[in-house]
Design brief:
Blueprint (H helix, E strand, L loop, with lengths): L7 E2 L2 H16 L6 E7 L3 H17 L2 E7 L5 H12 L6 E4 L9 H7 L11 H9 L7 H12 L8 E5 L6 H10 L3 E5 L6 H5 L4 E4 L17 E4 L3 E3 L2 E3 L4 H4 L5 E2 L6 H20 L1
Parallel strand pairs: 1-11, 2-3, 2-4, 5-6, 5-7, 7-8, 8-11
Antiparallel strand pairs: 9-10
Length: 281
């Protein structure tokens, strides 16, 4: 990997747009994939995310249906909705929007979705396949990170990748996927000793902790590749987990927030919908 003197900004919007065009070509014709999203309650952020998903689906020719349940829905009502979608051959992908109300078990929900229709790749069966490097669909945000690296021509093999954050949605699966690409992987978390020192060893640093501008220039070695997964709001503006302004000149490549990893999450979801559709043939 050849490092540059100044950080190159990885344009996630452009890469996502290219992927959407590729997906659009795959679904032109008679039948098309159908994504069903289940929303429990009316979380404002969830409503924004769902609108973005619906818009993206319509742009590429994927059918979209939203199933809404009240905030007070019982676990059985949610499970019945998932079962109905599992049993509907016209539905190829199922996504249960999170966060869920406290009375609904996230574990029960993700394990109820048919693994073949699990376009979020949260079912234990699918995550197991990710660990084995044999997944049919991939976790949306982690896959977006890997795709950005590959599309930028950044060699992952043999590099030391440090992942800051160990969530089930991003940290753990992106670490597995980096390992599958032959990186040497270190996972850091709230109990890690000398976090700055470990981060400074990274050729590729993935920040996924949900704390605005937590990763400062002191955490980054010259020429490192920075993938910022964080989406935070500070003083009314969106920012990542990385102190972008003070790190951009030190990194060889860096993703901005917004416009970096975020657009890739939905692009991967579209790819997963097509893959699930193909598998259900």
């Amino acid at each position: 990997m050849k490092f540059m003197e100044t950080g190159r900004v990885i344009n996630g919007k452009a890469h996502a747009a290219a992927i959407r065009e590729e997906v659009k070509k795959q679904v032109t014709g008679g039948a098309n994939p159908h994504l069903a999203v289940v929303l429990v309650g009316e979380d404002p952020a969830s409503l924004v995310y769902i609108r973005n998903k619906e818009k993206a689906c319509k742009e590429v020719g994927i059918s979209f249906s939203l199933y809404t349940l009240p905030e007070t829905a019982t676990p059985q009502e949610v499970m019945d909705t998932i079962d109905t979608l599992n049993n509907d051959p016209g539905i190829h992908g199922i996504l249960v929007q999170q966060p869920l109300p406290p009375q609904i078990s996230k574990h029960d929900v993700v394990t109820r979705v048919n693994p073949v229709k699990d376009v979020d790749c949260l079912h234990p069966h699918n995550l197991g396949l990710v660990a084995m490097g044999q997944a049919n669909v991939l976790p949306c945000t982690p896959s977006g990170c890997i795709t950005l690296l590959k599309r930028e021509g950044i060699d992952i093999s043999g590099k030391h990748a440090v992942v800051v954050g160990r969530s089930d949605i991003v940290g753990k699966p992106v670490a597995l996927m980096l390992l599958n690409e032959n990186a040497t992987v270190t996972i850091c978390h709230s109990k890690t000793k000398d976090l700055p020192g470990i981060c400074r060893q990274a050729d590729i640093l993935v920040a996924a902790i949900g704390r605005p501008k937590f990763i400062t220039a002191d955490y980054v070695k010259e020429g490192a590749v920075i993938i910022d997964v964080g989406i935070n709001r500070e003083n009314g503006k969106l920012c990542g987990d990385v102190d972008y302004e003070n790190i951009a000149g030190k990194a060889s490549y860096i993703t901005p927030v917004p416009g970096g990893v975020g657009p890739m999450t939905i692009a991967t979801l579209l790819e997963n919908c097509v893959r699930a559709w193909e598998l259900q043939g």
